[in-house]
Hints:
Elements (H helix, E strand, L loop, with lengths): L2 H7 L2 H21 L5 H30 L2
Helix pairs in contact: 2-3
Amino acid sequence: MTNSEDGWKSSKFRVGLIAVMIFLITALTMHLVGLPNILYGSLVLSGGYIAINIILAIAKGLWIKHFYR
């Protein structure tokens, strides 16, 4: 893999872009099936994706620090 591919995998832009796409697709789907609170439900899923990326980045840093010192 090249450095640009590695950079793309961990970029904040990529995480934000995926979170926005999750939000839009979820909101549209919830609207089409007639569910209430579409914005709240979409924010929960997008926020969960962002939170998991933050947690994984922290866990990766701790793992690298522990096993590669």
